[in-house]
Amino acid sequence: MEAVPARARVYVAGVTVCACALLLPLPLPVPSVRSPGWAVALLAALYAAGEQLARRRLAGTFYPVLLAGAFLLPPPAAALVAVPGALLSHGVRRSVQLRRVWRAAQLVVAVWAAARVHGALGGRDAVVTPDFPYVLGPAGAAVLVFCLVLAVLDAGVLALADHAPVARTCRGVFARSLAPVAVHGLAGLMMAVLWRSPYGPVAALLVLLPMYVSWWVFAQYHRERAAHRATIRALVQAVDIKDGYTRGHSERVGRASMMIARELGLDDERVEVLRLAGILHDVGKLGVPTRLLRKDGPLTPEERRVIELHPEYGHEITRGISFLGEARAAILHHHERLDGSGYPYGLSGAQIPECARVVAVADAFDAMTSTRSYRRARPVATALEELRRCAGAQFDPDMVEALTRALAREGWHPAVTAEEPAVPRPRRDAASHGRPGVRP
User: Fold this and answer.
1) Domains (ranges, CATH) in the chain?
2) Given CB 3.0 to 4.6 Å as the disulfide criterion, which of 84, 121, 342, 379 pairs with 336?
3) Where are the stretches annotated Disordered (predicted)?
4) Which residues contact 266 (CB under 8 A, 6 or more apart)?
């Protein structure tokens, strides 16, 4: 969070002040809990230990203990349970400190709201003398509020830091987290019921054993995702090394593709797929001879035909990467044109997959707005005007307009992708460089 804008830091500070206010008054005695201070200390210790275990060995967060506290304790006491675990994380850098403060404040607000809703609905009395399924109502409402507060707070900081749409980001975060938080809520409710039972807190701790197994499974999923990211990084680095002209181009095309996808209202899963498609769209250059990619001057027709094989090479290279999904279609078809004059198959109109039409616009936009050794970057406005001029023949007009709206809201700051030599090289046309080719 070192690059977080000042307005986002102010937002974090405001949420932190709110969280501190919610911790007051200090926990008061609760008739149904013999020693509330002891209960808060034990739950806080369990949460802190669980967070360390989850971060080091597993994945995710230790929500069952937090939700058990929301079901057992009054709001200030329940919120206090989250503080030690969120603050006692490793690292002394400023960014780590800011993340810890933000996480603590976020959880305090969410747990306080969940405990308040649960108590208002009579949930604490229902936990003392559990009456199923009545006890599930207040607990379910508390879980929904807990998840919603986390989603809203996350959407707020993302909107200020990354200019992400608030409503869409909130819906996405809420949808992704609701199912796992609901499972954690059931475990927290079981802990609360057993805690209040004659068997006491020791029996409540047994609930954490099956949660450990579920976290282990979840950790395998995260390790697989990490392997996916490492695979993509390795492929992109290989392309950057082979073709120095486009260093950084892949990441920017991925970002522009993601902006278009969000503007089109696609779900988060497809947005991520399109980001990967943009990042890997030129991976087929690994199959093109380096001398052609770095050749000065125009290419011969035979050399150009070799360059135009790179989408098919990319499709073959990524054949065994199952998690890419429709991104492979974008890699194969991102040089097709709406009028049928593109390559490799000369598809036209709706025959071209939507993902490929998105990446084609993102690719051409970054190619025009990035400095190359043979020409200067064009201004964003000029590049957008060129895209609009070619819309309908080369590019999908809907994708061009989506990019225009996204840029008007978020802006664009391209970086130089190649060092400029002392003597300018002759300009090559876009097709010879393996790009869609926006011809003035």
Assistant:
1) 6-206 (1.10.1760), 224-410 (1.10.3210.10)
2) 342
3) 416-440
4) 274
